[in-house]
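Could someone model NDP with this protein?
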Amino acid sequence: RKGNVIITGASSGLGLATAKALAETGKWHVIMGCRDFLKAERAAKSVGMSKENYTIMHLDLASLDSVRQFVDNFERSGMPLDVLVCNAAVYLPTAKEPTFTAEGFELSVGTNHLGHFLLSRLLLVDMKKSDYPSKRLIIVGSITGNTNTLAGNIPPKANLGDLRGLSGGLNGLNSSTMIDGGDFDGAKAYKDSKVCNMLTMQEFHRRYHEETGIAFASLYPGCIATTGLFREHIPLFRLLFPPFQKYITKGFVSEEEAGKRLAQVVSDPSLTKSGVYWSWNKESASFENKLSQEASDAEKARKVWEVSEKLVGLA
Ligand code: NDP
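Reply:
Sure, complex below.
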């Protein structure tokens, strides 16, 4: 049978390019978890995906009720779940004031980390039931967890501190909106959320790889400077960022190439190792990359896991 893969945020950018790459092989049915049904349908059509290769299901990661509803809908479809790709993200670098999810968590960490944390914990149950030979749970990371690069060192740098803001619920009332308890900074909130993504992947690996055989992985697909992720940025930035990445840092990849990379992590028989953060070199060959000290801190991973469980109502 075909493999079934859920991809969150498959209505644009990396998620869409990955959905297209997998659908084209004829070996995958892609479940597109998207907050805007019409946009997702148009996106799938625009890249030429044919109807029998995808299903769109509503998912708003900024609402835990919606996450639970999505899991219900998926389970009712009767499809087995073989691979989950947590890809969706928001990035709010110019926001002066924080905005919030339905439950009142700061939006970047609430969407990118907490929404995906609940989703992947609930769907793990479904993945365990699947008889697919190479089951994988992938959480898209970022270079910010990778301090041996130029881009990983641009301030504001990620820092989760002692998690006091996260423990308080990131609500701006009786707690800070930032994980480390500091003042709101949209760019830093995004980077912090990506560190949480990479810590979560490793904690999944430690807790569940042996028992389930599922491969847990994260990746940095390269800088895809053309995606909607930068839609909130100032116009001058949006104009200069793609050429800067192309000619100065040389980290630029097209959406198509990045989609092929993520599709490899989903289905390539050679990328089955668990607990790995994948990157690609200039020749587009994959390698196991090193994470920054904070993004590979096992004690912090355990704490983020435990605090997140409480926030999303699993503990
Ligand atoms: P895009 O903005 O193009 O894609 C993000 C997707 O997430 C969109 O489909 C968006 O939906 C979706 N999304 C946002 N909020 C929600 C929500 N509340 N519920 C459901 N879906 C939501 O950006 P990219 O393709 O660049 O980003 C994809 C991933 O790649 C992210 O995890 C990002 O961190 C990562 N990444 C990107 C890099 C880059 O250079 N672009 C570099 C490294 C990592 P909608 O279409 O409705 O807006």
